[in-house]
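Annex B. Sample input.
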Amino acid sequence: MNNPSGTTPLIVVSSPQGFEAACSALEAAIPAHGFGLLAVHDLADTLRRKGIAFAEQCRIYEICQPQQAARVLAADLSLNMALPCRLSVYTEAGATKIGMISPVAMLAGLSNDPELQSVAAEVEATTRAIIVTAAAAGEPA
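Annex B, continued. Sample output.
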């Protein structure tokens, strides 16, 4: 997993799988970790349909764990704009990657509330597990 120094809010894991297999693995890992899948945006397809040349693949998954979302909203309703969590499967120079922006880093920039930082840490631990599980799916044991 990149971001070993903590200098970037991006959390990205490379996967040995092809793009479609990684997408399927992510779609299976999301409910297995207690999150729901709200929407999938095929960003690459959207760009191409708009006439923009885009050689890579990119799907953005909006996911939510309702109890955690409710905790965030109870603490600060304006943080609805930071919801839901977004995970991405994409290709870059032939490599498949799965990633997200760190929920801890994102909320740290929006609030100093310790309760929100606690929620963000819990969400980040679970979403990291989702990413790692999906990235490793299909690897030899």
